[in-house]
Amino acid sequence: MTPQPEAAEMPAATGPSPNGLIEPLLASLEALAAAGQVETACRLAGQACAALRRSDPRGAHRFNALLHRLTRHLDW
Question: Which of 3, 64, 67, 74 shows the smallest number of beta carbons within 10 Å?
């Protein structure tokens, strides 16, 4: 049986950084709103804004801006 590597020996996870996820997430929320799910898109944009508020203020600002653009299209 082959021994498992220690945590320090394991390679770092690779993939998109959180900053690299902002663009596709914003596009997804815009598409969701365009498909008639404006309220859901607003709720998710608000959650993303709150989650990024301290760790990525610029990213949070982008979700906040989207949220404010979308709220004009709410029908309640």
Answer: 3
In angstroms, the Cα distances linking 6 to 1, 3, 12, 14 are 15, 9, 12, 18
Q: What is the distance, to the nearest Å, from the Cα of residue 5 to the centroid of all Cα atoms in its chain? A: 32
Nearest to 54 by CA among 27, 25, 20, 18: 18
**9 band by pLDDT with thresholds 50, 70 and 90:** low
Single out the residue of 28, 51, 50, 40 nearest to residue 73, CA to CA. 40
> Domain residues of the chain, as ranges?
35-76
